[in-house]
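As promised in the previous annual report, we have extended the structural survey to additional targets. Below is the entry for Flagellar biosynthesis regulator FlaF.
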Amino acid sequence: MTAYPSLAYVSASAPARTARSAEYEVIAQVTRRLAAATQRRTLDYPNFIKALSENERLWSTLAADVADEGNGLPTQLRARLYYLYRFTSDHSRKVRLGNASAEVLVEINTAVLRGLRGTGGGT
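The corresponding structure token record, generated without further manual editing, is:
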């Protein structure tokens, strides 16, 4: 992934860091919010929907980045990440309809975080 999508989510006041660490932090923040909101969804449904939407925006941004011809990631990895975007989008719709659980979305993000850390995750 390139720095472009992540930096759109990173505060201008954030200290200088590598693109990879910035991406990691953005995904980690979105994942933490989604995980917490998922656990409290019956008590604070509007916050849950907000966190779900934020996760969708993250994945939409990542998808646009990996679809860009200038993206330097290997083609196979770009395709996998784009597939995860499509799955996340479809699954989020099912979650909103009450036909699916959001926990799998947290698991996907966590696997991507492990990949960014270099500890696996299957992305």
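The two ends are 12 Å apart (CA to CA). DSSP finds five helices and no strands in the chain. These points will be discussed at the next consortium meeting with the crystallography subgroup.
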